[in-house]
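Q: How would the structure tokens look for this protein?
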Amino acid sequence: MKDNHLKIIVQNHVYPPSEDTFLLLDAIEVGPSESFLEVGCGSGYILANAASISFRAIGLDFSFAAVRNTKQNLLSNNLEENAEVFLSDLLDAFLPNTRFDVIVFNPPYLPSDEDGTGLDHALIGGIRGSEITERFVRQAMQHLSPSGRIYTIVSSLSGHSQLERCIEDAGFEMTTVESGAFFFERLSVIRVTSSRKPFYKS
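A: Here is the predicted structure in token form.
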């Protein structure tokens, strides 16, 4: 899905495209007739790539700086008519009947520690590291189209047994579609599907 011609500028206090961003982008499959949602859009790197393909692309972030940064990057790449960006805590902005074919989130996935940084909101996912991801998946499953899929990242540093249980209990399936070793951890992209129906492949 990657568009090598995109020009992305990262503003202060916004998480820059990093190894986890690229790993997630490589795993995403979206078709031109599908709707796309990115939660935690940050600089808009993934959303801009999706907006160049999907007929409907929406980005959400709880950070005003990130929303502003994403809008600027969509505008500078002439994609402002292909995507919308809203301020929201995860998927709280949507009514219950809103559905998407592809929902993506590069979550904060590290366990909390004593060292704080200005980007903790983009890095720390809770005491275990997976709490925000679990909350996201619960919400995303309610907004997924029947043949849709969710993509998100988990880290070897954070336990995700509760995440797996949450997905299974809801009658969904979880598959690891990409993984890689980065510094002190292994990151994996998981795909959550609502059924065994075939989905679009580019």
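The longest strand covers residues 144-155.

The beta strands are 35-39, 56-61, 83-87, 100-105, 110-111, 124-126, 144-155, 173-182, 185-193.

Upvote if useful.
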